Structures are given as structure tokens and as C-alpha cells.
């Protein structure tokens, strides 16, 4: 053993170091190729979108003129935002409650089973999940409740199909929202602040609102933002669960792409990204500000 | 309850909540078959500073948790101010806890932490702010009221935790090793400060520690626990000078424990002398190292003689180990300012029967 090691001394000329960089370099080739292909595709997409159209103007300008961003589009956008916000909030809320319960129960088997359950949306195909949900949603009591809730919120443009979409999207987002929130809740529990709050006279509800929620808020905002962003691009679940009646922006873009209408697809997608950023950026900024309040302040370098 | 909003609105001097005593009767806690606390009987008088002292795992935190309402007792009773509190949730007990981890609210300022208990108990904002100011002055944190707790030193955080607990004017303040995270110097300072806060607020303190020095220097009453039971309870002087068992004698300070049943037994002169002068059923005695007088050049008639085997100089004191025919060397401390006896010197060992304690029970 020792003889082998001493027989191969590290070279002072840095050749050994050079070789050690070669392997990671090679490992980076496939992801770089993939990334390159992606950039190329986007570039091609932009090029096609901006290329002059029939009138000789840029395709994008023509598309806007032809109604790429008409009231029909904005109605779909409103629907998309509603569905995504609903799904993100619902998913975060369920995650918070589940996390609280897990911390309270504090049983390893219960935690493991719950984690597996929360993780399941990732491993079950979306189509299978979607049709499974359709079966559940078709059960008369479920369908009746959705109808009732839909007519209650009808003035907001909410339909039973839209509510069902929110529900199923929230389920799909559980792995994203639940795991970080469970971790955060464990941290909060470890701080014993809930106990301290009880001791000082706060009942369970107050402890939740005044201690748990403020301490979990930065994490909730971050995972909520992430879930919202993903939901904004979701396409399969609204199509399946909405039974074609919950048209989201991705669906419109998909149809444009099928029709090889690059400019319209581009304009609609760009606005979708813009709206997503407009909602998510303040959420992340707020999360950062709230998080700073609880983290030790870093001394600024002199 | 003693901490009604009305009571809280008054200042710390006028009309404070009265401190209340704590009584434990046959208090038990088991986890499955493991006994964490096995039948504790204890009386702590109102307004006293009681220290619960014992080695790690003896059940100190469990007892405190049961008084505070965080741990459900398996059996027995807890009376606070004469009223049974078993089954009453923590938020409705007249107690407040200073946690070992402090458990400060990281999202609130120093003032926010202190005001928390007042606000959830329905004290109006203005009154709560005023009371918070008073408490922060009491713990000398007035200028730091708007700081975040993460920006404080360990000792300052400690004081926030104490002020926060005192804010709700508990009849009993429970403290679980609150100074264990601090360095020695700050610890000393906080011990003095805590003691003075306790006296100024006249609150009953139940203070858990495994540091005997801390317990001795702060408490009116020391409760020594061992393996889930109270071994002895009394004033610090009482416990130090009159330990009931070998465990207590050894746990609080140094002690020479002489047993007539081990070593060479009855034939040793010191055992013969103890038998004659301080009779005990248990055949076991404790003698503090400073309660022994050494004399040089003993006559042959000196009842107990020994040979110096080790000398250690501590500045203020000198520590001798003297071989007197027992299994362990006899430890003697004398004031440091004298000409020391060298190793191998033969010395007379002088004992005062009044300063020898007859122990009960078996070995520790
Ligand atoms: N939740 C629990 N489940 C099982 N056993 C427990 C639990 N809590 C405490 N115990 C056991 O009860 C005994 C007493 O614990 P406790 O925390 O009261 O000790 P302690 O005197 O406070 O010790 P330390 O000085 O180390 O804090 C220990 O043996 C411990 O292992
Ligand atoms: Mg403990």
C-alpha cells in the first residue's frame, strides 16, 4: 500500500492538476451540448418570430396587429393566473398544515408514510393522475360540492372546472411546497418557540398565527412562488381536468405552435413570462426581506 | 389566575401578583417502562429561590416540565399556590419558563419578545409598551429595545428571555439551566443579576442546574435529585454541612467518606475513633476536607495519625492527601499560608465530632 503511494509522487509541475480538471471537463460536455441546443432552439424561435411576414413587417408586430393579445388572450391569462395562484396558495396551505401535524405527532413511521404520499405525484404519470382525479371528481358528492363552490364564486369567472383544476394542480405541486416547509417547520419546532408562546399565554391558534406563520413565511413565499411559476406553464392538467373548458395560456400557445404560427406563439409566451415575473419577483423580494429579519445581520465589510 | 390583564397593567411595585409556593406530591413520570421521575415529594415556599440540583438524566427537566405543563405526569399532584394544576394547559398556569435554549422569537425585536406575553393576554399596546420598558430597564437592556434578538450577545439574549418570562408576572418562574451556554465570567455575573432580580421581584424561582457552585451561591433551598427521586432538600448550609447520604456529600463539594465496612474495616484507628465519637447505624461518615486539622510531630498518643502522600498548592489553600489506612487517601485542605509538611511526613489528623456527619444509606 505505502510503497504504491510513494512510487507515484504528485508532480510539482502541475500536470497532475491538469489531468484532474480533464475529467470534470469531459463530464460537462453532455450538459453543455444540451444547453447549447436549447439556446439554439430559442434563438431559432426568436428568429422565426421576428422574421418579416406577409406584409413585410416583423412577424411579431403583425401577430399583435392580428390579435395575438386580444381580449380572448387576456381572459385566458386571467384564468391562468387565477388557477396558478389558487394552486400555489392551496398547496402551501396544505403543506403548512401537514408539516404542523407531522411535527406534533413526531412519529417516524407517520412521517415516512406522509413523505411517500407527498412524493407520489412525481413518480405517477401525469396522465394516470389526471384520469384518476377525473374519477374522483365525477363522484356525485364531489361534483355537487364543486358545482356549489363554482356558483358561489361565479362572479369572479370561477367555474367548477376551474376549481377542479386548482385542486389537481395543487396536488401536483405538493412535492415542491411540502418538503421545504416540513423542513422549516422542524427547525421552528427545534427552536421551542411554540412552547415558549404557549407558556406566555398564547392559545394554539395564536401560536400558529403569531409565531409559526411569520417564521415559516419566507419559506412559504419562496416555494409558493416556485409553485406559481410552474403552474403558470402547466398545460396537461388544465387540459385533462378542465375537459377542454379551462383554456390556459399554454394551451393557446400550443395551438399556435401546431399551426406553425411562430410570431403569435412568441408574443403570447413572452407576455406569460412577463406576468409570471411580475407576480413572482415581489414574492421573492418579500421572502428575502422577511428572512433577513430572522437571520443574523451580516456585518458589512469595511 | 394571578395574571389577569388588570394585574398586568399595574407597575412592578404596586399590586404585583403574589408569588406562590409549589408543592409536589408523589409526582411520577414514566416513559414506557423507563422511570424518569419516580415519586417526588417537595415543598417550595412562596418567594423562595429553589435550585434543583442533580447529575445529568436524573429527571430535573422532567420535573420542571411537569410544573410548567409541558410534560403530562403519569401520577401524583402538583399544587401551585395550593391549587392543583395537573391537566391545566401551560398557557393557563401561573408559571413562566426560561428555556435552556432560550427560545426567543427570532422574528421579533427585543421589545417585541418581552411584550409578546402581555399582548396575547390582552394588555393594550400602550400599557404593554410601558411595562416592557420597565422590564428592559430591570434587566439593563433599555437601549437595545429595538434590536433584533439575533444581534445580541449570549448574556443579553439570556436577559431578554428572563424579562420576557417576568413580563407575564408569573407566580412561579421556572428556569432550566439558563446559564449553561455562557462562559464562566458571564455566568458569574448573571448569577448575581438573577439573584437580585429574584429578590427585587419577589417571585418564586425554581432553577434547574447541575452546577453545585451555582446552586449553592444562588438558592435559598437546594433540592438534590438522583435517579428520579429527591435525595435531600434544605438550605445550602444545611445540605453542605449535614448531607444525609454519601451521594449528597460527594455531589456538593469535596467530602471524605469513611466506611466501616470497606477497606480494613474496624481495625483502622480513624474508624474506631468515629465509632466512639459519632455513632451511626449506617457505619458511614462524611468529613469535609476543611473540617480537619493537621498537626505536625504527633505524639504516639494522637488518636489518628497518617502519612502525607501528596501536597497540592492552590494559592489560597493547600490540599493534602493523607494515608490513614483507608482505601482512599484522606483529603485535607488548610489555608495556604503556612510552612507545608513534605510528602512522607507523619502528621496527626484532628477531627471535631461536631463537624463529622453520620450518613444514612449505602454507598453512592
Ligand atoms: N420524551 C422522552 N422519552 C423517553 N425518555 C425520556 C424522555 N424525556 C426524558 N426521558 C428520560 O427521562 C430521564 C430524565 O430526563 P431529564 O431530561 O428530566 O433529565 P435531566 O435531569 O434534566 O438531565 P440533564 O441534566 O442532562 O438535562 C432521562 O433518563 C431521559 O432519558
Ligand atoms: Mg435537563
Automatic annotation (TrEMBL), chain A:
Query: Which cellular compartments is it found in?
Result: Cell membrane
The UniProt transmembrane annotation reads 21-47, 81-105, 112-132, 152-176, 220-241, 265-287
Its family remark reads: Belongs to the binding-protein-dependent transport system permease family. CysTW subfamily.
What's the name of the protein? ABC transmembrane type-1 domain-containing protein
* Organism from which the protein derives: Streptosporangium carneum
Q: Which GO terms describe its cellular component?
A: plasma membrane
Stored CDD domains: TM_PBP2
Keywords from UniProt, A to Z, are: Cell membrane, Membrane, Transmembrane, Transmembrane helix, Transport
Q: Which Gene3D superfamilies match?
A: MetI-like
Tell me the first and last residues of the signal peptide. none
Q: Which residues form a coiled coil?
A: none
Which BP terms does GO give this entry? transmembrane transport
Q: Does the keyword Transmembrane apply?
A: yes
The protein's topology relative to the membrane is: Multi-pass membrane protein
Q: Which residues form the ABC transmembrane type-1 domain?
A: 77-284
